[in-house]
Amino acid sequence: MLQAGDTDFHGLILIFLNGLWEFHTQPSDWQLFLLQPIYKGHNKDKTNPASYRGIYLNDTLAKLFEGLLISRLTIHTELLNTLTHNQLGTKPDTQTHDAI
Amino acid sequence: MKCVVNLIPLRIRVRSPNTQPNKQTNKTKKQDKLLSTVTQDVAHDVGPAEHLHNSMWDYLKKYKNNHTTSSLPQTTRSNASPDKRIWITGPPTLNPLNWHCFRFALGHHLFQHPLSPYDEKSAQDVAKLLPRMKEQASTATTTTHPLFMTPFTPEELKHEIKKLHPDKSPGPSGITN
User: Which of A30, B28, B63, B137 is the residue whose CA sits 20 to 30 A from A85?
Assistant: First the structure.
C-alpha cells in the first residue's frame, strides 16, 4: 500500500512523521504489538507455552519511522565516528564476517 | 564498421490439426468435472438449490468461519513455581492467562535472584556506577546536532519506502508495505 501510493499520499505521511519528529512523541498504538505464537515442532508438547516461538507484528508506519531514525543516526555516527571499531554489525560497508 | 549478422533459420513446429480438438475436449472434460464437484460441494454445504444464487458467497463465509479457528490448544500448562519470575511447567489448565505467565517469566530480568543465569557481580558493579553516570549526564551541557533538528525530506521517505520488503504481513493497523 505504501509503495503503491502517489506523491500526495507520501506527502501526507511525511507531514504526519515530521509532526512526530518535531514534538518528540509517538502514537500509543505503536507500543502495542500483535503476538503470534508459532509451534516449534519436533514433537514438542503443544500445551506447553515454552514450545512456541512468539512473533511480534509491528505497525508498518512505525517501521517506516524507525527506518528514518536509523538513517539519521547512522549519518551522525559516521560523521562523528562515535562507534567503536569493534562494532561491525548495523554499520554501512561492514559485516560481522570482517571480524574473522 | 563491419556488421556481421548471423542468420539463423527459424524452426516452427506445426502441430497436426487432429491433435487440437482432442486436447480441447480433454480440457472441457476436466473443467466440467471441476465445476460439477464444486457445485456438488456448495449444494451439500449450503443447502437446497433454491439458494444457489448466493451460494458461493455463503460457501466462502462458511469456509472462513470453519478455517479461521485458532490452532492453539485450549489447555495450556500452568506455572508450578511459587516465584512467578521462574517458569516450571505444571499441570495443564484451561486458564488462558498461562500464556501471559510464561511471557512474564521469560521476559523478567531476574536481577539479584538466587537462580539468576547472569553474572550478578558485574551487574551489581554496573548498578553502583549508575548514580554517578546520571549525575554526570545531568550536569553536562549538550548541544543537539542540526541533523536532529531538520525535518525529514520527501527523498528520505521515498528511499525508506523502497527499502520496505513487499508481501509482508501487516501490523495492527492493516497497512501493508
Answer: B137
